[in-house]
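[agent] plan:
  1. take the single chain provided in the ticket
  2. run structure prediction with default settings
  3. attach structure tokens to the ticket
  4. add a short note for the reviewer (M.T.)
[agent] executing step 1
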Amino acid sequence: MYQSYYGLHEPPFSITPDPRFVHLSERHRDALAHLLFGIDKGGGGGFVQLTGEVGTGKTTLSRLLLEQLPEDARIALVLNPRQNAVELLETICEELHIDIEGKRDSTKALVDALNAYLLDAYAKGLRVVLLIDEAQNLPADALEQVRLLTNLETDTQKLLQILLLGQPELRAMVARPELRQLAQRITARYHLTPLNAKETGEYLRHRWRVAGGQKFPFEAKAVQRMHQRSGGVPRLLNVIAERALLAGYARDATAIDAKLIDAAADEVLPLTMKRRWWPWIAAAVGIVVIALLALWWRNEPAHAQPTVTKTAAAPMKPAPAVPPKPVVESLDAAALLQLIGATGDTPVPAWEALLAQWTLPADSITVDPAGPCTPVRDDVHCVQGRERLDTLLALDRPALLRLHAGGANAWAQLLGADARKARLRIGTRTFDLDRLLLQAHWNGDFVALWAGSPPALPTATDIATFQNARGLPADGVAGPLTLMALASDAPGPHLQRVLE
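[agent] step 2 finished; step 3 output follows
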């Protein structure tokens, strides 16, 4: 209903776990790293435990994990843990495509079949992982059976790695004295907490950009209020933001203020999280009525239809040739290390590629890795420093990143990124690599440029508002990053937002 009004091509705050909309905060990246550690550790044995409040993103992280499984990993995913021990064993075997015909209802037969499968996988160099979601719902006998599965081992290593995802009750459950044997086998624990105020703003802006939005509609105080009312829980942020946009559309409001956020939150949040509930009932009903009237008015056909004069059809022109898509390679940790060592620390090739994107001569800028970059033309501007990847993505312009591996350094051109991957050009080749892998070999050093006349500067208050909307430090000073962001609507190359 409101998508065209706000210039969107799809809803930005749906509660379905679409990987394209995933915004990994620092704590989400840490949590995902713990899960990947649980798989990479392979036969090291033990449990990996990830807990978090409802709506903080545990299931979304498990979806990302499934998309990043190594080729040599086999996973059994248990989404409904409310099963007894035998039913759980049957589910695990079915997930691993083990033939259990004639073995059902027999714990020994199922464990023997699973053990045979694990030994065969071990001989083939495969890693087998059991991931149990909502693990706090495991009955006592099923939880004990899960513990006993860690006894399946060779003389040197465990055959099954187990990941437990659950709500905070899982932590209390495994802390019970009768489960101390299981607790002692948990080798990695991580508790996923809600987003803080800054991360809330970054989360909302990220989803807005992915949905095709240009001007971020939520005022700074509205973002602050959303964080207060939701407690930083992503799922609640989505619900409040969705309802606030509907209310804004019904009122023909291009900006969403804190009052609209309160109205939306009072309407959609659980009773325990609401405030001033009864006074807003009339307002909520009014918003729905206005929305329905607006929808009827927009869909009502005009009373008078314009006369259309038919003319002879113009000859069809041949469709322009579609250029072939560039070859994009995947880059793992070993290949990245080798590439950094072979490329070298000279920025010249990367600068020439970046200048070519701007259709600028190769001598427009000189850059020193240890010092500032120096434009040689008045219409070319350079920014150099150390920033987070999300800040560079908010600038929406290609940049050069200085990667490191041991004592070696290399310059790469940032072409785009989505929730999981970053796209880089190193030399003449283009690569997609996991954002976690990029963060491990990049300390934030970057160089970027923009071309054109400096934009007209608004007041200090307006600058701070603009900075806050773009995820920049809201100091009210038009520094190099702010000037670059102000010029982001000018012609020139932009980052890719969806990597295929």
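[agent] step 4 note for reviewer: Residues 247 and 253 are 8 Å apart (CA to CA).
[agent] ticket updated
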